[in-house]
Design a protein that fits this description.
The protein is of the alpha+beta class. The protein folds into 5 domains: 297 residues, Immunoglobulin-like; 129 residues, Neutral Protease Domain 2 (Neutral Protease, domain 2, Orthogonal Bundle); 75 residues, Immunoglobulin-like (Sandwich); 100 residues, Leucine-rich Repeat Variant (Alpha Horseshoe), CATH 1.25.10; 107 residues, no CATH class. 39% of the residues lie in helices and 23% in strands. The strands form 7 sheets. The chain has a 7-stranded mixed β-sheet with strand order 4-7-2-1-10-13-12, with no helix packed on it. A 5-stranded mixed β-sheet has the order 15-16-17-19-18. Strands 8-9-14-11 form a 4-stranded antiparallel β-sheet, with no helix packed on it. A hairpin with a 4-residue loop joins strand 18 and strand 19. Helix 11 packs antiparallel against helix 12. The longest helix has 23 residues.
Length: 824
């Protein structure tokens, strides 16, 4: 599962995080009966959002003899429960459980098959979603009655965490594994996708078709999948294994631009792990209104619609590339070796998160991977994170709470430390050992430790105890002094957090422009002291230069040292640290500004060039005067469009009127990031030109960056002919507003929509608010969204009361009311 973390930067004051909850121990599920095989026959009543199902579930007692069976079955009407031979079984169905009395006492290794006929009614499911997976109905009918003009009709499922039992009875636990076969009867115009291989297709006399999918290997119930819709299927392959991309037909020409790296990824990961891709095919589908980011259903990954991109987005970089890698890597870590409980979720998600780094490092080089790692670290350090949570935690209020930046981001960063500590050969050999020991089994973090210890010969209890079974991270204050008589650097590392950590720490010492790397070992005490010899006066002492150690460090370096650090250190982290510090003094220090400008034109990595541009303070006359010609040159010579877009933003800050013609010229760029920057720049002095650019854009779904710029322009112009565009982007714009005046403009548009008769716009706005609210619930931003919805309901009710015969307004009141219920 790839959670899409949302970072809202305006109007947020983060609440105080609660300490880890030790009041509710969450054990692994007790195994009384084991799933062996699951056979399903399903058909769909699409307009009424129901599914008729038959299930043949083969089981055996795990160890002790048993004469009863308990199955999870949420939101169902149970019609019949028998043995496979037709013999009726007594059962009760309540609290989402079917409790069945078997016909006799069954012993270990004695198989039996239960038959259940049922109707799945996802609208009756009562369990709630979370910030990571914002709904938990299991089975989803998208635009089932064709009421939304620009949206296809689709059906898809979402099993994680325990929602597969919303569409078929099962033991919905991660420590269960079963093979499966599914007969899906659908309208003949649709294609289907499920786990495993499509074995047959049979056309029926009523205009439907029955597709038979079969999956012979074992996997957990939450990884079962069905997808139905009017998709184009773009075929690819890795060796002899079919690789397929299910996309809406509009995106068929671009499917290989979006997903085409998949065969190379499979090859890279197979070689890296020395474990070939373990499944018989790999398909990826893009679903509308998906409730999370993406999901690693075995052999049949589902992605949210944001994965679908046009060339204007792809030229700026495939924003979904890391997610594609993430879900693929789960097919080893998660699908093959599966966390035995949600407490151990990180053994699935940390590896998938770290695979993003591995792929970027392989394809683009270390700087690109390190930039991504920094984003992951920022998500942990500055996101919605409770640092008191253990990485593996057996105490939590709700299993959905495990899907956070501790499990994902911190987990991945910890693997990076393990890789450095063990070395690449031992690390990847250890992962191979872990996979082979635990293939098709349920696993936990201890299994990982044991495999890495067996390969490396090193004790890792100290590492796992503090990083996996502990919480927090080191918060360090580093100081150093020179003993010139002994030619020693005396370094003090003070740990200010509890508990204390032990860790290896790299320290680079630069003399005469060259570095020498030293590794020291910090003990789990408050103050660690180290002495490092030198020959000539050090120009720089660089602690944790590549940011391997997950920590916070306070240091006291001079501006001159940061200038030296940018110009001489090779590590991405050291360079951006220097740029950020130099940006703070660019107005008062001439050399700091010169170094920033140098980075813009000479740095080999485009991410650093873009960062340096973004850090220029164009409110200062000196910065304006010295940077203008450089930014003009960048705009005309830079090959990377995101860097061009950043230059346009800064030129607009320098003199938007002066560069108006330049912005109009570059608005014809194929790049949507450049086009959006031009629109926003023109809004300052030439709104008519900005609106003209928008009117010439014929792409209905150009992605978040361009849609935000378009929505911002039409809101400012009060052009409500594009009300649906406004409603889709209004909330993200509101929470990224740069001033109170800008925010007031967006609030005014919100009020206009809620006071008027705008059916689709109201639905878009409510969906946007609910989705974001579930990610920030409990924070001040969540309270703002809740208040917005309550005020919106009052405004819409007033409009409806003023026009009581208007059924559309009554429907809009209902839409807002239902949205508020989801937020409770």
């Amino acid at each position: 599962m790839k959670k899409r973390f949302l970072f809202i930067v305006f109007f947020i004051t983060l609440g105080i995080c609660n300490a880890q909850d030790y009041s509710n121990y969450q054990p692994s599920a007790t195994m009384i009966n084991d799933l062996v095989h699951t056979k399903l026959k399903v058909s769909f009543d699409i307009p009424n959002e129901k599914m008729a199902g038959e299930a043949w579930i083969t089981l055996e007692p795990h160890f002790y003899p048993t004469d009863s069976l308990s199955l999870d079955a949420k939101g169902m009407e149970i019609l019949k429960v028998t043995l496979e031979n037709g013999k009726d079984l007594k059962y009760t169905y309540q609290n989402s459980k079917i409790k069945i009395s078997l016909d006799k006492l069954y012993k270990k290794n004695e198989l039996y098959t239960v038959y259940i006929k049922y109707i799945a009614i996802p609208s009756s499911v009562s369990q709630k979603g979370s910030g990571a997976i914002n709904d938990a109905k299991g089975l989803y009918f998208i635009n089932p009655r064709g009421e939304e003009e620009d949206k296809p009709t689709q059906i898809w499922t979402q099993g994680e965490t325990e929602s597969s039992s919303c569409w078929f009875p099962t033991i919905d636990k991660t420590n269960q594994k079963t093979s499966e076969e599914i007969y899906m009867t659908v309208p003949d115009k649709y294609v289907t996708l499920s786990n495993g291989l499509l074995k047959s297709q049979t056309k029926n006399s009523d205009g439907t078709r029955t597709d038979y999918w079969k999956f012979d290997k074992k996997h957990a119930p939450y990884l079962f999948f069905m997808g139905v819709g009017d998709f184009a299927i773009v075929k690819d392959k890795w060796k002899n294994i079919p690789v397929e991309y299910y996309v809406e037909k509009e995106y068929e020409p671009y499917a290989k631009q979006i997903f085409g790296d998949t065969p190379d990824m499979i090859d890279f990961f197979s070689n890296l792990l020395n474990y070939p891709y373990p499944w018989e095919k790999y398909s990826q589908m893009v679903g509308r209104d998906y409730v999370s980011g993406a999901m690693e259903n075995t052999t049949a990954t589902l992605h949210m619609e944001k994965a679908q991109q046009k060339p204007g987005q792809l030229i700026d970089g495939n924003l979904w590339e890391t997610t594609i890698a993430h879900e693929l890597f789960h097919h080893w870590f998660g699908d093959l070796a599966t966390s035995e409980s949600w407490s151990n979720l990180t053994v699935n998600e940390s590896f998938a998160n770290y695979s993003e780094y591995l792929w970027l490092e392989h394809k683009y080089g270390k700087d690109k991977a390190e930039e991504h790692k920094q984003e992951e670290k920022d998500g942990y350090m500055y996101g919605k994170v409770d640092f008191d949570k253990d990485l593996v935690r057996f105490h939590y209020k709700d299993r959905e709470d495990m899907f956070d930046a501790v499990t994902y981001n911190k987990g991945g960063l910890i693997l990076h430390m393990l890789r450095k500590y063990l070395g690449d050969d031992a690390f990847f050999a250890g992962l191979n050992k872990y996979l082979k020991n635990n293939e098709y089994k349920a696993t936990e973090a201890h299994h990982l430790r044991l495999a890495l210890e067996e390969v490396s010969g090193k004790d890792l209890n100290w590492f796992f105890n503090q990083w996996y079974y502990g919480n927090g991270h080191p918060k360090l204050k580093a100081t150093y002094s020179l003993d010139e008589s002994k030619k020693l650097i005396k370094i003090e590392i003070l740990q200010t957090q509890e508990p204390k950590f032990q860790f290896p720490l790299d320290i680079d010492v630069y003399e005469n422009g060259k570095s020498t790397k030293h590794q020291v070992w910090a003990k789990a005490i408050e103050n660690n002291s180290f002495e490092i010899p030198y020959k000539s006066i050090p120009q720089l002492v660089n602690i944790n230069p590549d940011d391997i150690l997950l920590c916070e460090i306070i240091e006291d370096k001079t501006t001159e040292q940061y200038i030296f650090q940018y110009k001489n250190t090779p590590e991405y982290h050291s360079k951006i640290e220097a740029i950020n510090k130099l940006a703070d003094v660019q107005i008062s220090n001439k050399k700091a500004l010169e170094t920033l400008l140098e980075a813009i034109t000479t740095d080999k990595y485009e991410g650093i060039r873009k960062l340096a541009i973004s850090k220029l303070d164009e409110t200062n006359p000196t910065v304006k005067q010295k940077s203008a010609s450089i930014l003009e040159k960048v705009l005309n010579t830079e090959t990377q469009t995101p860097v061009q877009a950043e230059a346009i933003k800064q030129l607009a800050n320098i003199d938007a009127a002066k560069y108006s013609k330049t912005f109009i010229k570059f608005s014809s760029s194929k790049s949507y990031s450049v086009k959006s920057a031009c629109i926003e720049a023109l809004l300052q002095t030439n709104k008519e030109a900005a609106l003209e650019i928008i009117n010439n854009i014929d792409d209905k779904d150009p992605g978040d960056i361009l849609m935000n710029a378009m929505a911002k322009a039409v809101i400012i112009a009060q052009d409500y002919s594009k009300i649906n565009l406004i409603s889709k982007r209004l909330v993200p714009l509101l929470f990224t507003a740069q001033s109170q005046e800008e925010a007031n403009t967006y609030f005014s548009a919100f009020k206009d929509i809620m006071s008027g008769d705008y059916l689709m716009a109201t639905k878009n706005l409510v969906n946007s608010i609910v989705k974001i609210y579930l990610q920030v619930k409990g924070y001040n931003s969540g309270e703002i969204l809740l208040e917005m919805m309550q005020n919106g309901l009052q405004l819409k009710q007033q409009a409806s009361n003023s026009n009581p015969t208007n059924e559309a307004l009554q429907k809009q009141v209902k839409i807002i009311t239902e949205g508020l219920n989801k937020m409770k």
